[in-house]
Amino acid sequence: MANAKKSRIFVAAKPRNKKGFAGYDIVGNIAIVKFARNVKKSEKKKFAEKFLPEHKNISAILEKSDKFKGRLRTQSTSYLAGVKTKEALYKENNCVFRLNVDTCYFSPRLSSERKEIALQVKKGERVLVMFGGVAPFAIVIAKHSKAHEVISVELGKECNKYAIENVKRNKLQNVKIIQGDVRKKVPQIKEKFSRIVMARPNLRDSFLDVAFKKISSKGVINYYGFYGEDEKDKLIEMIKDEALRAKKKINILKIKKAGEVGFRKFRWRIDLKAN
């Protein structure tokens, strides 16, 4: 990954001679470590105390206790070493973000995705980001494009608090943060959008019916869906069925694997144009 050093994104997978160590992610100043179930607390502490001085940019080490879950995609971590904090200050793509790693879903692994979409945005576009979190997509888009306006809608109140702070921290004037359910808040927005980014949770609801009502003619939707290795066709058929119900003609522009989320299961990105 080209910008890994600048963004401080590292993923380690079962290094040699580290029994019970499953890997780690670094989000700014915080390392989130995953261990096998049978590792004792004392061994975890010993690992963390050795890890901390070896990584000068890290001030806190947490253990990942559970997966991201629920509509708000929260996780559970426990303190191992360093400063007792769960608040990270993270940098990527010349942008800065503050967030709580437990209460706010954030994936450093989507750094290149955010930049790639930002570079698609043309001058004067009105962009809607659904499921906006602490506003990483909205802020990277605003920073690296000449979008007229970027609106980020997020259900979680805690994430929205950080999103507002992050917009100010990055000194952006054309980003608007809205707190609430996209099914309720998006229909209340009067204008339509030339681009809608849907970095949605891994839920059954596609939310495409909401997007199709707000995309302008010839507008682009960047849709993220979670399907297996051999289920790409199912994803495409689902999108076409949703478009048919919404009486929208669409053109698939690009299909991309945007990261692995489980065993033979991937986050797919579908770029589609509404005609």
Walk me through this protein's architecture.
The chain has 275 residues and is an alpha/beta fold. The chain has 2 domains: 4-85, RNA methyltransferase domain (HRMD) like (Transcription Regulator spoIIAA); 109-274, Rossmann fold (3-Layer(aba) Sandwich). The protein is built from 8 helices and 14 strands. It has helices at 4-7, 41-54, 111-120, 136-144, 157-169, 182-185, 208-214, 232-245, and strands at residues 11-12, 21-27, 30-35, 60-64, 77-82, 87-92, 95-100, 126-130, 149-154, 175-179, 193-198, 215-228, 250-262, 265-274. It has a 7-stranded mixed beta sheet, sandwiched between helices. The chain has a 5-stranded mixed beta sheet with strand order 1-2-3-4-5, with helices on one face. A two-stranded antiparallel sheet has the order 6-7. Strand 11 (193-198), helix 7 (208-214) and strand 12 form a beta-alpha-beta unit. The longest helix is centred in the N-terminal third of the chain and has 14 residues, at 41-54. It is globular and about 60 Å long. The two termini are 35 Å apart. The model is unreliable at 1-17 (pLDDT under 50).
